[in-house]
Amino acid sequence: MEARERVQEWIHSTFDIEHVTLQRDDSVPYGQRVCSKTENDYAIVFFDERSDQVMCSFKEMEPLCFRIDPFIEHADIRQ
Is 62 helix (H, G, I), strand (E, B) or coil? Predict the structure, then answer.
């Protein structure tokens, strides 16, 4: 599965798509900004080619990235 598809699949399996809007974020590879429709909050979901993983960075923690691996039940914080 290609990186763009993996990012989209993770977004659709994680967020309630009816309550968010998606915006392209070109600052990161295959980046998507997932914005809440009801709150002033967002997450940036992208693909990290070095680790071959989908990553997620939240608005209030922009410098931090969380490794997202659907086969592991916890998030690994990376700086």
Answer: coil
